[in-house]
């Protein structure tokens, strides 16, 4: 494989360097740049999880995908590109998608020194991962279960038919075995838990399960109130805070914990919330990721070509890959009223403002651009 003319030597992904975090570019360049593109490559999935953020897009059969050559041509136009994410659906369900879309994207990224992540439920046979996984940087999985009974209830919640517990036992066991096997082989497996009224009570157990599964990182996010989960109850900020403290008390110190779309801010009126924000930044092997959506990332639908700022929100399509350059779309987005509303920036507090969903859920009446983190010790 030939090395791309824009090849970058990659640093090791670690708590000190998360290439998906919008903070690095904003600090270094003084502005946001398009460094990340996420592709939705399939609307097929073998599960129907109750928390799925794209559940209503899932299909039994899907139409023709956009040729990968066009996707790569658009990526080639982005000089600032650093990361590519691949999602679905379950990207590995279709061998055709793996061969014709995923593998070419991974090889292209490797030729440029671009970091890659693929989101998978990891329930398919291990052989489906083995002939391409070496080109992947991060294998991302969701984990929101205490046991097989939770798994059975959650992942088949929207299936539309009864699924035998035996099927759940097979898939649940396979997911754990696959994770251990791939981690042992050197794959960076990152397990994500979504905090909800259910999972927040058991986040400590889920953390230890992920450690036992060989995960190098545990990501913790709020449950997004969208799609299948749009009617789900959100936990209160007090419950969220309790869950974080419980996790920090029992965590494995050798496992990186990443808090994404965190609903606590250094400009909060609540002293405890400000203290928690500072604590997370000062705790070894714990990081707070500044939200990539709209700050350094766009999402591309691999079938319609539509370009959106987030795969979870309600911001309409900003353009289409058939006739728009992604960098042009991103520059246009930065002038959008929503971007201006939420793209506040505080270098002292290492904060780039809220995720749109978090702001709507917890801080609907706040104007973040008029708040400040005065009195906070500088976070490095």
Task: Please characterize this protein's 3D structure.
By secondary structure, this protein is α/β, with parallel strands linked by helices. The chain contains twelve helices and eleven strands. The protein has a single domain, classed as Alpha-Beta Barrel (TIM Barrel). It has an eleven-stranded mixed beta sheet with strand order 8-7-6-5-4-3-2-1-9-10-11. Strand 3, helix 4 and strand 4 form a beta-alpha-beta unit. InterPro entries: Aldolase_TIM, rSAM, rSAM_sf, rSAM_YfkAB, YfkB. Keywords: 4Fe-4S, Iron, Iron-sulfur, Metal-binding, S-adenosyl-L-methionine. GO terms for molecular function: 4 iron, 4 sulfur cluster binding; catalytic activity; metal ion binding.
From the structure above, extract its key features.
TIM Barrel, 14% strand, alpha/beta
Offer a quick outline of the entry.
This protein has 380 residues and is of the alpha/beta class. The chain has helices at residues 23-29, 68-76, 95-112, 127-130, 148-155, 165-184, 203-212, 237-250, 271-282, 326-333, 337-342, 356-362, and strands spanning 36-40, 83-87, 115-119, 138-142, 189-195, 217-222, 256-260, 286-289, 297-301, 306-308, 319-320. The chain has a single domain, classed as Aldolase class I (TIM Barrel).
